[in-house]
Amino acid sequence: MTLPLAMSGQDLIGQAKTGTGKTLGFGIPLLTQVISPTNPEWAEFKNAGKPQGLVIVPTRELAIQVADDLETAGRNMGARVLSLYGGKAYEPQVEALKNGVEVIAGTPGRLIDMIKQGHLDLSAIKVLVLDEADEMLDMGFREDIESILEEIPNERQTVLFSATMSKPILALTNRYLTDPKLVKVVKNEITNVNIEQLFFDVKGRAKMEVTTRLIDFYALKLVLIFCNQKKRVDEVVEELMLRGYAAEGLHGDLRQSQRTQVMNRFRSGNVSFLVATDVAARGLDVENVDAVINYDIPLDEEYYVHRIGRTGPAGKFGKAFTLVVGSER
């Protein structure tokens, strides 16, 4: 749905759930328009080393994921793609910018740092993508985004993707997009058919007991457990470890090096139970997750879709368990 519009250079608003192909929905047109050996301007841009495509994302994990996907999609085109995010040493990122890149996927904070220090020149940007725009506004990035947009030429294509269309999102589109077309995937069309979804009425103090019984009963080896708050993540990790389960937490207070270590241990199976907040889990890509447990009910129905989509990949069957207390039913 997005490809014909985006390929024509049209400003675009995309509204869809996770798992619908958003990255390639904006990525293929971006790469095609930015990397154009037949375009007389191409040699000039390439030699200048200035990026022409920019994807702004809310989290480090999503920056890495988007950059990886775009690099894979544009490999045969000779695309140089760089992820820019905080918590990682500046030097390798600065060196990559000096050598020249065509496309950047970055978080607002690190992008602004690079601009202020004179390492990042956005004067040649032709295509701008705001991915997970609702998440970025929820995380307080509005001013940062507006500062970055001031550095980008007005003559550009702007594509915005968001799971929801709140008033702040509409205000952003009215200000920065020109006659945008809306592409919307109807909610009921996207379902997770390979995931068995169950909920359990429990008393609040029994959540841990129910969680461990589910793990034991189904012999779960690799499990994602979602909580709404960082404090709760730490509490659940502590409880699981006291009961002999190899668990670790993932939330916004961890440094990037710590997050990377936790994710590597989970992917390798050295840690079987990863307890995370929604924001920390954005962009998280792990295969063979047996089940997702919603220790807390998600604050938004879109979060629920994001969460349970982590299990049951590639035709395999997964399980999603939600613990419900009282009126939450």
User: Main sheet, how many strands, which sense, barrel?
Assistant: 7 strands, parallel
Mean pLDDT reading: 86
Ends distance: 36 Å
* Percentage of residues in DSSP E strands: 15-25%
What does this protein structure show overall?
- The protein has helices at residues 3-7, 22-34, 40-48, 60-73, 90-99, 108-116, 133-138, 142-149, 167-176, 207-217, 230-242, 256-268, 301-308, and strands spanning 12-15, 53-56, 81-84, 103-106, 127-130, 157-162, 181-184, 195-201, 223-226, 247-250, 273-276, 291-294, 318-324.
- With 329 residues, it is α/β, with parallel strands linked by helices.
- The strands form two sheets. Strands 3-4-2-5-6-1-7 form a seven-stranded parallel β-sheet, sandwiched between helices.
- Helix 6 (108-116) packs across helix 8.
- The longest helix is centred in the N-terminal third of the chain and has 14 residues, at 60-73.
Sum up the structure in keywords.
329 residues; alpha/beta; 7-stranded parallel beta sheet; 39% helix
Task: Present the secondary structure layout.
Layout: H1 3-7, E1 12-15, H2 22-34, H3 40-48, E2 53-56, H4 60-73, E3 81-84, H5 90-99, E4 103-106, H6 108-116, E5 127-130, H7 133-138, H8 142-149, E6 157-162, H9 167-176, E7 181-184, E8 195-201, H10 207-217, E9 223-226, H11 230-242, E10 247-250, H12 256-268, E11 273-276, E12 291-294, H13 301-308, E13 318-324
Parallel strand pairs: 1-6, 1-7, 2-4, 2-5, 3-4, 5-6, 8-13, 9-11, 9-12, 10-11, 12-13
